[in-house]
Amino acid sequence: MCSEDCRPIGFLLGLPFALLSLLLSLIGVVVWIIATLLICICPCCVCVAALVTLAIELIKAPLHVIRWFTKQIPC
């Protein structure tokens, strides 16, 4: 009997996709660093702030993917 958070099949099926999104999160880290430096140079750039928000969402992508897969597969 599984608890509500125990869904190993969903985790295993989502693992390859989480690894792909991990690559996206690495790109997000690079974008975040560059955008943060741009904000320090010119804080009046509003579009760079949106770029930082996008980069943070890319960094969180592997967690979102794993959570989505584990919710789709019943225990």
Keywords:
75 residues; mainly alpha; elongated
Individual helix count = 3
Distance between the termini: 9 Å
Beta fraction of the residues? under 5%
Largest sheet: none
Low-confidence stretches: none
Provide the number of structural domains: 1
Radius of gyration: 17 Å
Overall 3D geometry?
elongated
Topology pattern, helix = H, strand = E: HHH
Count of beta strands = 0
Strand pairing plus helix content: what structural class?
A: mainly alpha
Q: Fraction of residues in helices?
A: over 70%
Instruction: Average the pLDDT over all residues and give the rounded result.
Output: 79
Q: How would you describe this structure to a colleague?
A:
By secondary structure, the chain is mainly α. The protein has one domain. It contains three helices and no strands. Helix 1 packs antiparallel against helix 2 and helix 1 packs antiparallel against helix 3. The protein is elongated and about 50 Å long.
Topology:
Layout: H1 8-41, H2 46-59, H3 61-72
Helix pairs in contact: 1-2, 1-3
